[in-house]
Write a structure and sequence with these properties.
The protein has about 475 residues and is mainly beta. It contains five helices and 26 strands. It has helices at about 5-10, 15-30, 105-110, 310-315, 465, and strands at about 45, 50-55, 60-65, 80-85, 90-100, 140-150, 155-165, 170-175, 180-185, 200-205, 225-230, 235-240, 250-255, 265-270, 290-300, 325-330, 335-340, 350-355, 370-375, 385-390, 395-400, 410-415, 420-425, 435-440, 445-450, 455-460.
């Protein structure tokens, strides 16, 4: 069951189906787009609509599209990216979704919440926006929130929840019911056509019924933010940086759960290997399965007016990672992706087990441990892992984001032993990245985005097949 209107799903639908036919011809010639290391949910089945291929028994529903008119009278903006899911009541959830729109891109303005010029700007409370361009326009990035009914399969409402931010890429949910949205940029008035510096984390309560005031959490640093996760036991926040020489950070809040009250920002260092290069690009630093002790280095001047926080951090001994992107909290540990890590630069997945005294002086005697869990040696196994989430039964669900017009993007599953299988394939002409994977609290539905052309899906199926394994 596909649950969509094929005529409305994509602009240029004929081209999408034609491309889908070509890709299926290639598959018929024995050039399958993926390799499973374990069976997972079995082989993908061809979607006759040419949108998303899923295993037998699974189906998708498109629940939000670029350009739809929302409940606040604004348009669903484009560049769908990271997303979090929150319980609203027994039947309904709230999704908070990022929009990676940048003020310097002309095409991004055409995907803004007011792009059709129908007087929609007048519906915005501009006082709640964070930034403007030099010409006085509100910066188009931000978040939308949508209420989805799991029982009826319907989206009940959508609205803009944050505006005036730039390149909102990923982020993470908090244990106290909010979404942390991250700016993947270091724009500032001296280097871009903006009136305020960007590169911060902002907080959006899932309960917000409209636009919230955009307040940067400056103590969490200004850099190419990608994603965050929070240890619910300690309130410590972990943050990734999408640079080829990015750092992995943690934020020790002065008051757990109240990030606006400030705290300390630190960067991870490998014990006994100051400034370590974990990428395995030029030379192999470690192998899959290796687990190393870590220390955490205090960072200074975290607002980084010269855009050099990671450079100063490495000079102080911090390790570098190849494009740190997704990060998600699991069962007493977290997982993060290094999108271009490994000798073939197709991605790594790392696991961090915190110290029993994480963030306290005693952790030096019992340090946290960082493990290289997965490293792709074949792009058909894994090709540039980006956003990820932890399924209710402990597997990882990982979004691919490769840039090839011919190599398909997939959703991958990863077992606790680090074995990879394929869950979905983007079958559209756009073949854009998967992003924002997250599960409903009851584990029945996986939500995920296509960044282009701007689609949010609800995927259901026999998840219990692996839950019980």
């Amino acid at each position: 069951m596909l649950n969509l209107d094929r005529r409305r799903i994509l602009t240029g639908g004929a081209a999408a189906l034609a491309f889908g036919g070509l890709s299926r011809h290639a598959l018929a010639q024995g050039t399958e787009s993926y390799v499973n290391q374990i069976a997972g949910y079995g082989p993908l089945q061809v979607d006759p609509a040419g949108v998303m291929d899923l295993p037998h028994g699974f189906s998708y529903r498109v629940i939000s599209r670029l350009g739809e008119v929302m409940g606040d009278g604004l348009l669903v903006p484009g560049q769908f990216d990271g997303m979090g899911c929150f319980a609203l009541d027994d039947d309904r959830v709230t999704l908070v979704r990022n929009h990676e729109l940048k003020p310097g891109s002309r095409s991004h303005w055409t995907r803004s919440a007011w792009s059709d010029g129908e007087g929609r700007m007048a519906r915005l409370d501009a006082s709640k926006a964070y930034g403007q361009t030099a010409s006085g326009q509100i910066v188009p990035g931000g978040t939308t929130s949508l209420i989805y009914n799991l029982k009826t399969g319907r989206t009940e409402r959508q609205h803009l929840s944050l505006i005036g931010t730039s390149a909102n890429c990923a982020g993470g949910v908090t244990p106290w019911g909010s979404w942390l949205t991250c700016e993947e940029t270091e724009e500032r008035p001296e280097t871009a056509s903006v009136t305020r510096p960007h590169g911060y984390v902002f907080e959006v309560p899932a309960s917000a019924s409209g636009l919230v005031e955009a307040v940067p959490l400056k103590a969490m640093g200004r850099f190419y933010h990608e994603a965050v996760c929070v240890d619910p036991a300690t309130g410590v926040v972990y943050l990734t940086e999408d640079k080829t020489d990015g750092l992995f950070y943690r934020f020790l809040p002065n008051t757990p759960g109240e990030l606006s009250q400030g705290g300390r920002l630190q960067a991870l260092a490998i014990r006994g290997a100051a400034g370590a290069d974990t990428t395995n690009h030029q030379m192999r630093f470690w192998a899959v399965g290796d687990e190393l002790s870590v220390d955490w280095i205090d960072l200074e001047d975290v607002d980084s007016p010269n855009d050099d926080l990671r450079v100063r951090g490495r000079a102080s001994g911090a390790a570098i990672f190849a494009r740190g992107e997704g990060v998600h909290w699991g069962d007493g540990e977290l997982y993060l992706t290094a999108t271009s890590g490994g000798p073939i630069e197709r991605g790594q997945i790392l696991r961090y087990r915190p110290s029993s005294a994480e963030g306290r002086p005693q952790e030096a005697a019992s340090p946290g441990r960082l493990q290289l869990m997965v490293e792709s040696a074949d792009e058909r196994v894994m090709n540039m892992a980006d956003n990820l989430t932890v399924a209710p039964w402990g597997h990882l669900i990982v979004c691919e984001d490769n840039y090839s017009p011919t190599i398909r993007n997939h959703l991958k599953g990863v077992s606790p032993e680090g074995q990879v299988y394929t869950l979905a394939r983007n079958a559209t002409d756009a073949n854009s990245e998967f992003a924002g994977a997250c599960f409903s609290p009851d584990g029945s539905t996986l939500f995920v985005n296509y960044q282009h052309p701007g689609l949010t899906f609800a995927i259901t199926g026999p998840w219990d097949q692996l839950r019980a394994a």
